[in-house]
Amino acid sequence: MQELIIGIDIGGSKILSGILNREGRILARKKETTLANCEAGEVLDGINVTVKELMQELGAQRNNILGVAVGAPGPLDYFNGIIKDPPNLGWRELPLREELSKRLGMQLLLDNDANMAALGELRFGRSKACTHLIYMTVSTGIGGGIIIDGKIYRGKDGGAGELGRMRLLAEDGQGASKHGQNLESLASGTALAHEAQELIKQGRGQGILALCPEASKITAREIGEAARGGDPEARQMLRRAGYFLGMAIANLVNIFNPEWIVLGGGAGLGLQDFLGEPIRDVVNDWVAPSLKHNLKIEFTSLGEEIGLLGCAAAVLQEFENSARRSNKEGMEAQ
Amino acid sequence: MQELIIGIDIGGSKILSGILNREGRILARKKETTLANCEAGEVLDGINVTVKELMQELGAQRNNILGVAVGAPGPLDYFNGIIKDPPNLGWRELPLREELSKRLGMQLLLDNDANMAALGELRFGRSKACTHLIYMTVSTGIGGGIIIDGKIYRGKDGGAGELGRMRLLAEDGQGASKHGQNLESLASGTALAHEAQELIKQGRGQGILALCPEASKITAREIGEAARGGDPEARQMLRRAGYFLGMAIANLVNIFNPEWIVLGGGAGLGLQDFLGEPIRDVVNDWVAPSLKHNLKIEFTSLGEEIGLLGCAAAVLQEFENSARRSNKEGMEAQ
Description:
The structure is a homodimer.
Chain A: E1 4-10, E2 15-21, E3 26-32, H1 40-58, E4 65-72, E5 76-77, E6 82-83, H2 96-104, E7 109-112, H3 113-124, E8 133-138, E9 142-148, E10 151-152, H4 183-187, H5 189-201, H6 206-209, H7 220-228, H8 232-256, E11 260-264, H9 266-270, H10 272-286, H11 289-292, E12 296-299, H12 306-333
Parallel strand pairs in A: 1-4, 4-7, 8-11, 11-12
Antiparallel strand pairs in A: 1-2, 2-3, 5-6, 8-9, 9-10
């Protein structure tokens, strides 16, 4: 049997588990959506059961598994394998790597979901073989993975890439509230949903409300649907979100001079027909001419499976690195 | 005679030339302030004359010179040694490395002035031995040098670190004009001077005007003086500039997770008694808790000579790298 990789992508609203081969083909997968109000231990038990089921489905044994990787929302402590306090999960200081590894009976790699996705894009996406890439996920929250010279950039102690925290509006009388100023609170799926709910409270946003009569259940999806139906309020909201995403991306390009900017995430991919244009317009206006040359800004072609593909990429990279290390040691020992 | 290094720091309003030893002691230096309205060829001729004078002053010969380095305002093409179109110099596509090298009769290293300063800080400043540092210069313009793993981060084609271009205010009806939104236009020395001139046009800013009756000649220096004298308008302007610098720095910390943020530049150093507090306040409010741990934000202790020290650091780094390279080749050849 070929060598297999287990990937687990823990998101704000779903867990996607899968078994992949070395070429990034997903041979078995399961998507679970219920996460809210679950205790961490129960969630990890659930993942363990799912992984065993998927292995059984393929007739795979422990010795067929090349490695296991898990992507989870940041902030997390990469070096120690600990989930810190992701706003959308309700977990705090959870030693996920150790806890899940114990349940599975296998070692595992744990990284920020956006870092995993960036690795997936780099190995399996259209940006293959590029060296400087920034991946931005627009989903429940907004996160980022920064690739420099083909490797994840982690910063001094593993906390780099918190792109959703980028502040884009000031507080000096510009009319923005204290809590409404960073990228995540301006352009994430959650931000869009809140904005629609605010509109509705004011008696507006009726085109959106018609698609989801219970205002508290409105998500970015309904806003996209309304916009596609021609609703001017929904279109204006998406143009504004695209504008802020473009502003953040222009800043990143001016700072990093990357080759690729890749966008993903449920809300990002679902709304790309509305977000792409304002993003490109703003970047075009605000990036230094020499940095625009050859810059590519695209939505990932890997869809919602980018996280799983990233898990495979992380395992393969680790495997190649350790092969290189032992090769080198072997040569030095001769 | 000990080995000497020639450093030339070309700024928006002055050129500082010096000869240093390997320990970063400046043995001879000359500061020239007149640059406006000069053709590039004349400026380079002038630098050549100054360098020859400084060498003569020390009785130094060509064979005493370990290397020459030049810092110049960005954007510049590091790989080809070409100055692109720095807004404050009026030069365009100037092959400075080649042109000055011809005049001096010596090879030289050319880099962005902020990159040079970052290298100077890393070797000779308080942040010695740190691996992740961002240097921000607040002067006529605002520039940056990013150090990752002890080396300048250049991006895909050498244009990284344009920190002054970071957009901090949006255009969506927040009241900011199209040209008043990036960090440089909000918090540089030039921005402060413009702001004071605007106040005066409105009949306000009298405390600043009293220190420099010709409004068009007001610089950041007079604003600092007025603030020190208790002028509330000047203080408010500096608090606002500090706020925006803090906002940009918070963004950089959330993205890069660095160990040190070092501030320099004429305006930055001259106004540090007013800028330091708002910067630290904003960073404290907006940086993820895990990234604040051990983060140091300071003004450089190297003063206006940081650029010259950076030139020495660049030459020494290049020298050490080539020694390492030839050592390695020697070992491989054995």
